[in-house]
Batch of 2 targets.
Target 1
Amino acid sequence: MTTKIYIPRDSSAIGLGADVVADQVSRVSHSMKQEVEIVRNGSRGLIWMEPLLEVETESGRSGFANVNSADVEDLVKANFTEAGLRAKSVGIVDEIPYLKNQERLCFARNGITDPISIEDYIENEGFKGLRSTLDLDARSIVDIVTDSGLRGRGGAAFPTGIKWNTVLNCQADQKYIVCNADEGDSGTFSDRMTMEGDPFALIEGMTIAAFAVHATKGYVYLRSEYPHAEEVFNAALDVARDKGYLGKNIRGGERSFDIELRRAAGAYICGEETSLLESLEGKRGLVRAKPPLPAISGLFGKPTVVNNVITFSSVPFILANGGSAYKNYGMGRSTGTLPIQLAGNIKQGGLVEKAFGVTLNELLYDFGGGSASGKPIRTVQIGGPLGAYIPEKDFDLKLDYETFAAAGAMIGHGGIVVFDETVNMASMARFAMEFCAIESCGKCTPCRIGSTRGMETIDKILSGEDRSANAELIETLCDTMLHGSLCALGGMIPFPVMSAIKHFPEDFCLEPHATMAAA
Amino acid sequence: MISSNCGEARESDLLPLREVSMLENADYEVVVSAALKKHSNTEGGLLPILHEVQDALGYIPSDAVDIIGKTINRSRAEVHGVISFYHHFRNHKPGKHIIQVCRSEACQAMGAEGVIENLKAKLAIDFHETTSDGKITLEPIYCLGHCACAPAVMVDGVPKAKMSSDQMDGIVDELRTPKNDN
Ligand SMILES: Cc1cc2nc3c(=O)[nH]c(=O)nc-3n(C[C@H](O)[C@H](O)[C@H](O)COP(=O)(O)O)c2cc1C
Ligand code: SF4
Ligand code: FES
């Protein structure tokens, strides 16, 4: 009898040894004459258990965590039963509390299916949303997305339905759908996991968007740091074309749409949508002044929908189940669920999809299990390199766009980077300035020059030179950057810097009162 | 449940490295004209052209800049401006192997700084430099998406997660063995 084994092809799992384990399983089972079918699935998102090897059993898929090649022989000998590797057995994977306590709408399939099997996708609710649009006109599709309350998951949280509506209302001979897969924020990997683990969900979401605004051509702008995502996504595009889910007259209907993947080239600023469009046009990624909005004059001057990977891949559920089904999750104006990424110094790092309203405490301790080092968590940075540092006293904050904004913080793309008590916040503030200096597109002086001055000034504080005068200088500089920058790179780098000074003055050898109204 | 979340991969599981096959410089004209031909009808196709060239040669030779500019009707300065804007593109031939180390926050939270210092010392080079034997180039990178299993590096395109200084030392030693010379 053939045993079905799952070993993720997710690149984090590969980084932890999954390819070697897969090779070893096929080698050992072959030499022991055991029939084994190995499926290279996506990751379940329990990155702390990777490589997580799963075995199909009568009672569900049973897992072994942190498997390495030395474990394989015992496993094969025991015919992949628990007895073979008791120390690493985690039982039925679906029953693991970390997974069971999530609300997976967007990540419902990740880790369960073979990412490039369209049959697996369809068997697991795939293309239901797309199918429902075949009888809908563009306006009705936009209305359903508007009704869901979905907001952009790339950072700015702009209502998706409103954006699509603007593009729908434009008259043009050509419109574009552009997917922002530049995922530059440290601590984020949900776009990567989607493209490596459930690429058809993104294809479906983009196709629905195309039908909603009468676009015929789509681009995915994918960061060059993600070669595995590129490979899987390109393979999925070929399959989708082959099966009539992309191309002319999709599913025998009247609409046509195709997607091209474009590789970025390692510039953080190209995640900003107008810089991204410049890059897609083959230019330097200089940020464009708005207006005009990309929705009105975007790629090659045409009306363009620009959305994040997770925004698009949230759409199939909405079309399949209705806007109100989505709206039932979440709180206030933050409707639905967010794939949150637990990263950095966290014991159980990985992907946790929850409805908005979950608190940081629940995420960090109930899901995350505290720090990886075992030392107390001192702070978290949320929303990438432009996000504020949040001190422990605020860990009761609920994940909700408005709650975060009121606290001077942002959710961004949902990445939470955890630091234990050994972190030096002055060096984190310095890194923020350095990052801004490296990644600035160069258009605005406060961002281009100010960031370097900021770095130097923090160095002066650290070496004990005129501490309080230099701290004041940082504050003025941050104020200039905040107000004199065209985009959020220069405009928001002050948030991590000022929050570090405000909450952790001791790391800058400053008295608490020496810092004034910080971020 | 398992007792620890160590997730430490076995030492030898981390070693297999991808074979790198970069063409020798002499072939650059062939590579460039193939790239230009492939993307001559690609809208906004300069990045795809540059990627094609760098994927094959490891960098974008300055002579290639002229040919590309002429063919797509953009000045040498313009093409050069695009290349220099993006961190990914190189204008110098890299070493046989490329180690890219993540410097971003999640990796820092797990001790990336120490791994980087150790690596620089072991290789006796700084970022953007190549060892004097031409074997290894070291580059910083800002997030590889392995932030839940940091520190992360990419060696010749292969991801390596939860890296310690000792593991990195092992990888460097492996890269330096003669069998990884071609
Ligand atoms: C400096 C900077 C970097 C950004 N990086 C990204 C990114 O990597 N991915 C992303 O989806 N959005 C990023 N954004 C936000 C985009 O500009 C834009 O708001 C988003 O792609 C719109 O899609 P959404 O509405 O689905 O979020 C960035 C913005 C700024 C200012
Ligand atoms: S703030 Fe910085 S990155 Fe943004 S447009 Fe200005 S110079 Fe460019
Ligand atoms: S911060 Fe290093 S991989 Fe994301």
Note: The beta strands of chain B are 97-102, 129-130, 136-141, 153-155, 158-160.
Target 2
Amino acid sequence: MVGTVLATHALTRDFRGFRAVDGVDLAVAAGTVHALVGPNGAGKTTLFNLLTGFLRPTSGRIEVGGRDITGLPPERIAGLGVARSFQITSLFPMLSAREHVELALQGRGRLGWRFWRSAKLLGRFRDRADELLAMVGFEELAEVPSDALPYGRKRALELALALALDPVVLLLDEPTAGMGLEDVDRTVDLVDRVRAGRTVVLVEHNMSVVGRLADRVTVLQGGRVLAEGAYDEVRADERVITAYLGAPDAAG
Amino acid sequence: MSVATKSPSLVRAAARAPRRLRWALLVIGLAIALWLPNGLYPAVAVDMLCWALFAVAVDLLLGYTGLLSFGHAAFWGTSAYATGLVAIHLGVPFPVAVLSGALVAAVLAVPIGYLAVRRTGIYFAMVTLAFAQMIYYIANNRRGLTGGENGLQSVPRELFGLDLTDAYYFYYAALPVVLLGLWAAWRIVNSPFGRVLVGIRDNPARARALGYPVHRYKLLAFVLSAFIAGLGGGLFAMAHRFVTLDTLHWTTSGKAVVMVVLGGIGTLWGGVLGAGLLVRLEDWLSFSGFEAVGLVTGGLFVVVVLVFRRGLWGTAAELLRRRSGLRRVRGGEQG
Ligand SMILES: Nc1ncnc2c1ncn2[C@@H]1O[C@H](COP(=O)(O)OP(=O)(O)OP(=O)(O)O)[C@@H](O)[C@H]1O
Ligand SMILES: [Mg+2]
């Protein structure tokens, strides 16, 4: 049996009395793609925010590689090799795509503190940045301020930023949201390519994407784990069908 | 590939002036700096230098880190007193006194910044203001050290026995210190650190997700800004040869912010322009015996904010950008 790289124990988060994440026990095996699905408001993004330190749990614990990371701030968790993408694209509006990726690459060393050096030093990240941009399909527009980019490019950049951290655990929050078929295919191929040597946790509404990528699926509803198993098992589960897959708009 | 992509800009990607224009502006700026005490009262020119440093320091925080400090007089004034005391008691050359004053300001900025950067927006402004008021009252009460309301008097202005009594000569002695401070600010903004600051300013959550400890970066920016403000405050003490409580007053903090807004937030050189303009205007108004100086400067402030939303420098840069943008489009049609 492969080791668990990411685990939560009775993880719970309340928002003023409303329980968004409710006693979630999750065990993500190293090297797998683990999908997190569930209807809108199930608590998937809240769970990601807990895992990455953007929210503090009301109770419960989080472990990464056997180490308790509960309560660590986001930058420390990122430093431990847990990178995320955001469901709602979160970029630096005035920086270009290349500057974004350079900034992400720069974060891994101590260069960011060098206030007495020239920003031209960031040129050393250029080749790697262009490589990452090419990987997510960014052939042009690498120099345009990101707020002027079309939606699809912004989503691609969101992915490139998470990849630039070369994470051990990659958390992707609806990477294909709002994409056309072609971009969805490209994203699936990309995740398939970058999963080598990593563990991926994927929040995804598109069931065909889940089916193509996921080794294991956890279904959340109302903040609780409703079911967990291989894709086909979960898909056949009565409760899941009523709760989620049975919904008319959920057919992938 | 355009020029802009070779030298990524901080404030706006692909928005920096072309290289030749930047060199031209630098030469013009230096020429003005060298000529200034010949065209103005030298004492006024010296004041402009001091305030230019102060404004640039405030812009480093406001424009490049997204933090509005409303208590920077704490650093300007503390450095003024420290510089004065060092000069009085140790009799060192004045640049050394100014440098030690700035260092004291930077050290003071560590605890204040540590607490303040945990807040953002108006709360950050309030925390910095509160600390500045505290420093003001301490300075007022420690009369033995600061001279209280009488101020710190007869600060010596020493530089290897040179006679710097005349403000005209002092101006040229002070100019290198000021240029050094301005260069430092420019370097910080155009460094790997400066790039992180802009990221933090525009999207702190994403910066944290990329692994940047946002509070610590803001703290370093705060301390560096206090150091540059301290350079200005120390020189100000030297320029006037006495230090009063005014240097710590909240209106002093406000004045620096006004200069930055006049010149343009996040433009760096706009602060220099704003400082020059405001110092000149205030001098002219008080010289002509006008009573309500604040009314006129306040009025000017309102007009500039309403008409030139990006401040004077920012608006000029925007106009230039549009013109060169047009030219590029036309060139593209021909080619
Ligand atoms: N900061 C917050 N304050 C209050 N309530 C919140 C907050 N964040 C999330 N919630 C609530 O928690 C519940 C779970 O939200 P969450 O965003 O985690 O759902 P999700 O599974 O990601 O849904 P979607 O598929 O729409 O992205 C929702 O009811 C939401 O309104
Ligand atoms: Mg969500």
Note: The longest strand of chain A covers residues 4-15.
